[in-house]
């Protein structure tokens, strides 16, 4: 019983930290998506400017 309880105790802190890691990962993905969207917008603007010229 003691051997089975040991891994569970060691896994508890990991479970507590996991939600924070997920939040950080989601925030990073949102930032990457925002930067990619802005980059695509800048590219479209440059394309429109070249077309107007």
Give me the secondary-structure topology.
Blueprint: H1 2-52
Region (Disordered): 1-53
Biased composition (Low complexity): 24-46
Which value, in Å, is the CA radius of gyration? 23 Å
Structural class comes to: mainly alpha
State the order of secondary-structure elements, H for helix, E for strand.
Answer: H
Can you tell me the overall shape?
rod-shaped
| Number of E strands | 0
* Mean pLDDT over all positions: 70
Strand residue content: under 5%
What is the percent of helical residues?
A: over 70%
User: Would you identify the regions where 5 or more consecutive residues have pLDDT less than 50?
Assistant: none
Helix count from the secondary structure assignment? 1
Strand count, sense and barrel status of the largest sheet are: none
Distance between the ends: 77 Å
Biased composition (Low complexity): 24-46
Region (Disordered): 1-53
